[in-house]
Amino acid sequence: MNKQCSAMAGTLESNDIFITITAVGGTDTSISLSSIVMNQFGEAIRAVVTQCMAQSGLKGVEVTVQDKGALECTIKARMETAIARFKEKM
Amino acid sequence: MRNRTFLFMPGNNPGMLASAQCLGADVVIFDLEDAVAQLEKDAARTLVSHALTELRPQGVGVTVRINGLDTPYWQADMQAVVAAGTDFVMVPKIESAEQVLQVAEAIESARQKHAITAPVKALAIIETPLGIENAYAIASASKTLHGILLGAEDFTASMGAQRTAEGAEIAYARSRLLTACKAAGVLAIDTPFPFVSDLEGLEKDAAFAVQLGFDGKAVISPHHVHRVNQAFMPAPDKVNWARRVMATARKASEEGKGAVSLDGMMIDLPIIKRAERILLLADA
Amino acid sequence: MKRKYISTIAAALRECGLKDGMTLSFHHHLRNGDHVVNMTMDAVAALGVKGITVACSSLFPVHEHLIEHIRTGVITGLDTDYMSGPLAKAITGGILPTPVIFRSHGGRPRAIGEGSLKIDIAVVAAPAVDAMGNITGTEGPSACGSLGYIIPDTQHAAKVIAVTDHVVEGGLARISIPHDVVDHVVVVDKIGDPAGIVSGSISLTRDPVALAIARNAQAVIKASGLLQDGFCYQTGAGGASLAASLFLREDMRAMKVHGGFLLGGITKYMVEMLEEGLFDNVFDVQCFDLSSVKSIAQNPRHVEISADTYANPNRKSNCVDFLDAVLLGGTEIDLDFNVNVTTDSNGNIIGGSGGHNDAAAGAKLTIIVAPLVRARLPIVVEKCTTLTTIGSTVDVLVTERGIAVNPARKELADRLRDARLPVCGIEDLHDQAVRMTGKPLAYERGDKVVGTMEYRDGTIVDHIYATKQSI
User: Fold this and answer.
1) Which CATH fold topology does B5-231 show?
2) B196 to chain C: nearest residue by CA?
3) What is the pTM assigned to this prediction?
4) Using CB atoms, which chains have 3+ pairs under 8 A with B?
């Protein structure tokens, strides 16, 4: 895998979520999350992102998530797009 | 289902997708074509698919405008949106009966592949001179085709004409399309009024579309929806007439009578259908 | 003539006998363009005085400046009807040693009148003053129109200082506050920034969801049967609330209804309705734009009212009691129709009642307008984070996805259903919201009390707690 590999999806607009997946080497997946509804949905967002990454089969990546109040279907959609774009670049 | 207004909504905007059903339009069109940049075609397709599957708009017809048959995106679009359960697939730049058949076939194979039992219909956009020339052939090409929208912006560009609020430059295209649709028995949908802040012009344009006999009208701004719906509101005397027709028909049916007349006119099936349509539009 | 004139704010404060522990009061008619509160507290600090309670009818981002005075102990108490911006954030974080007293626009003059809010010195930002010391809000570079919120203060405070940037030599055309309550007049370069005081033009929202809500709200009013001659109405100055007034105008024209009064914060749309003859009067406790400032100066039917007249429940009558319908906002509404306009769902202070619980209590029909979901947060919650307005005074919640009617208003619900409006239970709206967003985790309250919620009649209905983490 190209170590500089990085893909993005989504926007920072209200109701959207901005996802960046970057190759960092190794086998771990780290997730850093910020959200305007962190108190209420931080756990739920992390769970969805974790599950999407688990299903993706990607390893050794850092996922940065900036949430602006996206509904779950939007999070899933943006994750799906970011993962597909990342895989295309690999 | 009423089909007075067809509202275009950008397909890559999560906030707008969520509120699609609240804007008063009878049908919403999630747009994967002109409203989405090339680099975001994949993102929009995925977003709309998830939105349709998990956050299905209630009480409105759902259409997705996929990318044109001349692009590398349309087949993936077709698969995704049929699988996600759209009511209609709207295809731009249709110019021939062959293309309609191609679309119909793609819809059918997508339905089978994803085990979709509910019907999925096609809406074609005619927006080129050749499309207008082939209007009747397009309109009568397939049972899967439910209606045709006139795309005046691209059409006037191809014609080298200037798009105006009064619309003299699209008069022929409108009439030709309308006639073809009526002859083939498919929905005729008028082109959107492109001047977003000219609400007076919009009202005139919508009234004209209704007068010509269009079944519905596309709109490009949520601010246009209410006025276009209003334009389709039948006049009070028409509503009264329709009520009387239905009452007469009901009474005749109860009394076991066959043919009845009202005001010297036979109440036959076409008359009843017209009355039903008026009452549906009037929400009465 | 100018015997009340004194050179500086500091000198005026000294003359008034400023001491540690006093209560100073201010109005918020200059809104986020105000300079007077900050200037005055700078002067207090320079005089070495500490322990002051600042009783300002509302505090805005511009009052961030006061944080420094809180840190140094110059200010040890706040008393207000509304608070926003960095100051609100700092207060939520717990920098003030005593809880802020949050009142309503009607409760504040009630407290002043009955003596529970004792004002030692009222400092009046005065857009224009004449030689005698008469004050008006309708002239001058910092004109703000109505001065209604400070009128009760000037009638009860021990001392009154007017701070102005515009001295009128030839006498005033209109007088809001007469010279006989004024102790001192100070002239400064600028009492405020005009751009922050009034808007050049309040623009109507373009948000289609807000418009859909506004349309629904007016449909509720129409179906309620209240839209008849003599109709009295109050609404907000932005968003769905403001847009709804345009739909009201359409209906009043079509139905040929002649209204009684428009009330509250006034914008050009209300002025236009008055000038069109749709209403007898505008009763103005705050001007939001240049159009309303001009109108209050020129049109006798556009009347300045004090906060007492507006909403003090202890008066023989008050304007909100005559309201037929009012449109209000909210950050949260719970299953009992209680409304929160003071904090967000994270417990951060973002506002306050203002006239909210007053108008809700007085109006025959109280309508809360709000989108069902705001950036993944449901508007309908099980229990409000903070209680600003009591549920029994709230009749209807109008969202873009449905209308909930307070179960106590069965006849109203029937009327709305007969008019084919999308009526449902508030629990249904709650469920619908949660289905869209997922179930939010409960906000975890901190322990320190940073605010006391005093309802308009003086009862304490809730407290505000410091947040565990500030967002």
Assistant:
1) TIM Barrel (3.20.20)
2) C206
3) 0.93
4) A, C
